[in-house]
């Protein structure tokens, strides 16, 4: 996420909202102890081993407060960082360093935590044909950051939002009346370039989805044994995805199933933060 146009168009307004949430009128504490401009620097220190993601977002928060703020990085997104490592030095108006600290760290900690958790799961899939996907179970107004962090950690993005792809879930199927009807209606409505994915819960739904011409069949909350049966039924006529409470602790049971994709909401909704902090602030 280092393209200037991408940052300005898709990210800046979200960062400004976060800053406005934290500074409604003024930073009363900083203004108390630092009434005048004073150049200073502070160190970004890693306090936990992991994978870093979001460094340019961290930098951008300070730049939005003062374009003259400078950040010197000693690592890049995707790098492995270790406890005690000096990751960056931030230089600028001390008032800006103090006022932007929490928002900048919130993004960096959250994104690095997701990258770290995703990486730990993606490593378990190494050597298999199965790709790890995220979901739309993201923090409101954080999707662009969280899905980017998944990619940094070695995962892949599922659809970005409801406009990005067709996924007929149980309630869509209920609204249409059946799997066959839902697929037929989707094919008639959607542009031909859109793939149609169908969520199924049993083998009868698998057969119906295949016969209806689904492009991707999501095997939801099935046992590994049932998924293997489903893959035999599909027999290469559609891509396969499995989902349903997939975490680092239980993904190994799915490794020999043979699906094309495994999706996990836990990548974004359950990843703990990576602990980093700004320390040793001083005037220069």
Question: Could you characterize what this model shows?
Answer:
It is a single chain. The protein has 10 helices and 12 strands. It is α/β, with parallel strands linked by helices and 284 residues long.
Write the layout of secondary structure elements.
Layout: H1 4-22, H2 28-33, E1 39-46, E2 50-51, H3 55-65, E3 70-73, E4 80-81, E5 86-93, H4 94-122, E6 131-133, H5 143-152, E7 166-168, H6 170-176, H7 179-189, E8 196-200, H8 203-212, E9 216-220, H9 224-234, E10 239-243, E11 261-263, H10 266-269, E12 276-283
Parallel strand pairs: 6-11, 7-8, 8-9, 9-10, 10-11
Antiparallel strand pairs: 1-5, 1-12, 2-4, 3-5
Coarse shape: elongated
Q: What are the secondary-structure elements, in order, as H or E?
A: HHEEHEEEHEHEHHEHEHEEHE
Give the number of domains.
2
Helix/strand/pairing category: alpha/beta
Report on the biggest sheet: 6 strands, parallel
Rg over alpha carbons:
23 Å
Strand tally is 12
Average pLDDT, rounded to a whole number, is 95
CATH class of the largest domain: Alpha Beta
Which blocks of ≥5 consecutive residues have pLDDT under 50? none
Instruction: Give the DSSP E fraction (strand runs of 2 or more residues).
Output: 15-25%
How helical, in percent, are the residues?
A: 40-55%
If strands are numbered along the chain, what order do they take across the biggest sheet? 6-11-10-9-8-7
**CATH architecture verdict of the largest domain:** Alpha-Beta Barrel
Q: Say which CATH homologous superfamily of the largest domain is assigned.
A: Aldolase class I
State the end-to-end CA separation.
Answer: 31 Å
CATH fold topology of the largest domain: TIM Barrel
Q: What's the total helix number?
A: 10
């Amino acid at each position: 996420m280092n393209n200037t146009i991408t940052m300005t168009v898709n990210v800046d307004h979200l960062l400004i909202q976060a800053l406005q949430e934290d500074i409604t009128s003024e930073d009363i504490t900083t203004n108390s102890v630092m009434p005048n401009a004073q150049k200073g620097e502070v160190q970004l220190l890693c306090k936990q081993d992991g994978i870093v993601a979001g460094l340019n977002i961290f930098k951008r928060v300070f730049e939005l407060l003062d374009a003259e703020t400078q950040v010197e990085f000693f690592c890049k997104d995707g790098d492995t960082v270790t406890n005690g490592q000096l990751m960056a030095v931030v230089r600028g108006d001390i008032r800006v360093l103090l006022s932007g600290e929490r928002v900048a760290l919130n993004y960096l900690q959250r994104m690095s935590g997701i990258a770290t958790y995703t990486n730990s799961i993606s490593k378990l899939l190494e050597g298999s044909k199965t790709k790890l996907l995220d979901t739309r179970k993201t923090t409101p107004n954080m999707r662009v950051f969280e899905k980017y962090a998944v990619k940094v950690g070695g995962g892949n993005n599922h659809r970005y939002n409801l406009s990005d792809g067709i996924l007929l879930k149980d309630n869509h199927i209920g609204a249409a009346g059946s799997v066959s009807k839902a697929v037929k209606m989707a094919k008639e409505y959607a542009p031909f370039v859109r793939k149609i994915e169908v969520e199924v819960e049993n083998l009868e739904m698998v057969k119906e989805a295949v016969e209806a011409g689904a492009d991707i069949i999501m095997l939801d909350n099935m046992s590994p044994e049932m998924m293997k049966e489903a893959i035999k039924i599909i027999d290469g006529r559609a891509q396969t995805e499995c989902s349903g409470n997939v975490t680092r602790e239980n993904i190994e049971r799915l490794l020999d199933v043979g699906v094309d994709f495994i999706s996990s909401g836990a990548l974004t909704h359950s990843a703990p933060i990576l602990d980093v902090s700004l320390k040793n602030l001083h005037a220069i």
